[in-house]
Amino acid sequence: MTTSHFTLDMNTPTNPPAKNDDATSRCVVLFHQVGNSDHWDLMLEVQNRLWTWRMSELPTINQTVTGERIIDHRIHYLDYEGPVSNNRGIVKRVRAGRYQWVQPAENRLAILHFDKETWNVRLEHENPIAKISRAS
Q: Which residues pair with 118 in a beta bridge?
């Protein structure tokens, strides 16, 4: 496996697409069981990779949680559940949906649409932390 699909820059990317279409706007939340460091991974499909943020908890209505930017993941995690290679735990999909960019500026907002809820993800330019809230 090559690492050409991944980026090691953990800051918020400075070049999100100007717009999405149905083929490139998927998102997923995975519960990642890793022994004593279980967490959730929020993933947005962007240009054939998944921008990923690690969360210690899921947002509830009117509560904001932070997501820490981690390495981009392979696109297959949009549909994958099961063991992670090299004994790195197990992932289970807890949300899947679509998203759209609202603000194409330095501080961007992505609106995520899941089956029965909507999340807002605020990305600040060159900051590895995302502010994630549940709107409904």
A: 113
Domains of the chain: total: 1
Number of helices (H), then strands (E), belonging to the chain: the values are 0, 9
How many other C-beta atoms can be found within 10 angstroms of the C-beta atom of residue 48? 10
Global pTM reads 0.83
**Contacts with 58 (C-beta within 8 Å, 6 or more apart), sequence order:** 29, 40, 65, 94, 134
**Residue 18 CA to chain centroid, in angstroms?**
18
**Is 20 part of any domain?**
no
Give the count of beta carbons closer than 10 Å to the beta carbon of residue 97.
17
37 in any annotated domain: yes
Tens digit of pLDDT for each residue in 98-128?
Answer: 998 886 666 778 899 999 999 999 987 778 8
Cα–Cα distance, 83 to 1 (Å, whole number)? 17
Taking a C-beta distance cutoff of 8 angstroms, is the pair 75, 48 a contact? Answer: yes
In a domain, 122, yes or no: yes
